[in-house]
Design a protein that fits this description.
The chain has two domains: 37 residues; 297 residues, Alpha/Beta hydrolase fold, catalytic domain (Rossmann fold). Helix 9 links the parallel strand 8 and strand 9. 36% of the residues lie in helices and 19% in strands. It has 370 residues and is α/β, with parallel strands linked by helices.
């Protein structure tokens, strides 16, 4: 099938009541409150519906002529072809990068790290902002991680720890305290002045052939450019982490930028049918056309042999997501690195619980602190 997208409130207990009655009523209120909180917690951690089942995935180590691919050199040719197919759908990235033109808008000297609000250029006429977190009292060039935030109005402020409403998702704070330089960029769909669709329309006025994911991918590429411009960052030790919306961004950024040495994809819906990938700000409705030939195990294969960890919670990712990991493992094996692709189903819902954090941080340490 052609990949041209254009074809495509509580009552108060009065003090005048007898003490025993007041005590009884207060106890009842407390029990109701505790029961409500417990029920809410269970609901928050329990998926509303089962995670999607795995689709039928086309073999990766098979040529267009259905010949088996057994040699690394043959896979590298197939990799070029797959990458080209995806670029045909996404649209081409700029041939030349504009100067970053970095700036610092604010600096906070916190107990164990420095947090700065920074700006840099995405392309001519387009700036973005985010938060740079740097460990204190650490010398030398450090490993670094780009943290792609989830869908939330406070955008990168959550990952950077300014919005502390959900400590589980303060990924940047967790990682900087582990010795990483961390960049938490704002996703473009949260730019001021427009909603998600409106921000996509702004992008497509400049790049008619782009999808929302194309811009997110280019933003991920420019995030690495920013990190590489810092004297305290080791450019050979850069990784990426994303949850939900952010997982989508990190998948694409790593597939099209080999400077990402290890990435963690958390509850983003790895399959095209697992989540709302057809949204305008992702890939668009043409991915739902019958016979659409692309699927995300192909992007995972473009990442090989670099580190890839998938975290599932039994919402948009679950048991079916393991099929994507197994589909790509033979490609990793061609490189002699089958251990570099892995997954964890913590089954705790659309979250980043302690078990996931522990696994992700051990994964990053293994790949980026060598």
């Amino acid at each position: 099938m052609p990949l041209n997208r254009k074809s495509r409130q509580l009552s108060i207990v009065p003090d005048l009541l007898y003490p025993r009655m007041r005590t009884t009523l207060l106890a009842a209120v407390l029990l109701v409150g505790i029961s409500w909180q417990a029920t809410a917690a269970v609901k928050a951690a329990t998926p509303s519906k089962p995670a999607p089942a795995a689709p039928i995935l086309a073999p990766l180590l098979q040529s267009l002529a259905r010949d088996p691919i057994a040699r690394l050199e043959d896979w590298r040719r197939e990799r070029v072809r797959l990458r080209g197919q995806w670029i045909d759908y996404l649209g081409r990235f700029p041939a030349k990068k504009a100067p970053l033109k970095t700036g610092i808008l604010a600096t906070e000297d916190l107990t164990d790290f420095i947090r700065q609000r920074v700006t840099y250029r995405i392309e001519d006429g387009v700036m973005t902002d985010g938060y740079l977190l740097t460990p204190k009292n650490v010398l030398g060039r450090l490993p670094a991680i780009v943290v792609f935030h989830q869908t939330i109005e406070t955008q990168a402020q959550q990952a950077a720890g300014i919005d502390a409403s959900n400590p589980e998702l303060m990924h940047g704070v967790q990682l900087v305290r582990r010795g990483y330089v961390v960049l938490c960029p704002r996703c473009f769909i949260f730019d001021e002045g427009a909603d998600h669709a409106g921000n996509v329309a702004i992008v497509q006025r400049r790049h008619p052939d782009w999808t929302g994911m194309t811009r997110m991918t280019w933003d991920g590429i420019r995030a690495v450019d920013f990190l590489e411009s810092l004297p305290n960052v080791d450019p050979a030790r850069i990784g990426g982490l994303g949850h939900s919306l952010g997982a989508k961004g990190v998948l694409y950024a790593a597939a099209f930028d080999e400077r990402y040495r290890a990435v963690v994809f958390s509850e983003g819906g790895i399959g095209l049918g697992f989540s709302n990938w057809e949204a305008l700000w992702y890939l668009g409705k043409n991915i739902r056309a019958p016979g659409f030939p692309l699927e995300h195990h192909q992007l995972m294969a473009l990442i090989a042999p670099r580190g890839f960890l998938l975290l599932a919670g039994e919402t948009v990712d679950g048991a079916g997501s393991g099929a994507f990991v197994e589909a790509v493992r033979p490609v990793y094996a061609l490189y002699g690195a089958p251990q570099n692709v892995a997954w964890l189903n913590h089954a705790a819902g659309h979250r980043y619980p302690p078990a996931a954090q522990e696994r992700a941080e051990a994964f990053f340490d293994a790949h980026l602190k060598k």
